[in-house]
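Supplementary Note 3. Input sequence used for the single-chain structure prediction.
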Amino acid sequence: MGNSFKTVLITYLVFILQWLIFLSCKKIYKGDKVDKAPYVILFWHGRLALMPFAFRYFRQKNKKAYVMISHHRDGEMIARIIKLFHLDTIRGSTSRGASAALRSAFKVLDEKDDIVITPDGPRGPYRSIADGAVLLAQKKNVKIRLLNYEAKHFWEFKSWDKMILPKPFTTLIYRLSEPLDISNLDKEEAKKKLLAFFKDIEELDSFKE
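The predicted structure, written as discrete structure tokens, is reproduced below.
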């Protein structure tokens, strides 16, 4: 995707739309901000729309967060938008282009910054944990934190990830979990633990009666 006028226009229109919706909403933040330790931070692909704003609250000053963005055709647009939020990126995923992406991620963690991954991205399966997310945390002996938001009123897209876009003037609950230690678990046990914790925090913040 080149630097065409159309591409730049769409990028800024999406960015402005995100800001307009976010500013109109009531925000509630739950969980402690990240500390100086490096983390692997996970959130579902379907929560991408307003997730960049979470880092304005939870991120430690002078600490970077590198979002892993795939080489999938939608990835370039996502990377451009994320850059507007002053977040850094690593291109590749834990499945496609994994080798180079993981090497870059290892370096980021060594520098005490955070790696941010959508473990079910870029194309699913829906609500699945990629092996690479577990491998990354275990190889570098760092803990995982789960990031999520729930909206009281939203539109849900008919996409594989069931992407939600909160409606203007609704209430948003952002939550960052406590650090999760998966160092002593095998791959499948770690995935089950992470899925269970994701389910727990979604239920905690659910607006369903």
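DSSP finds six helices and nine strands in the chain. The longest helix spans residues 5-24.
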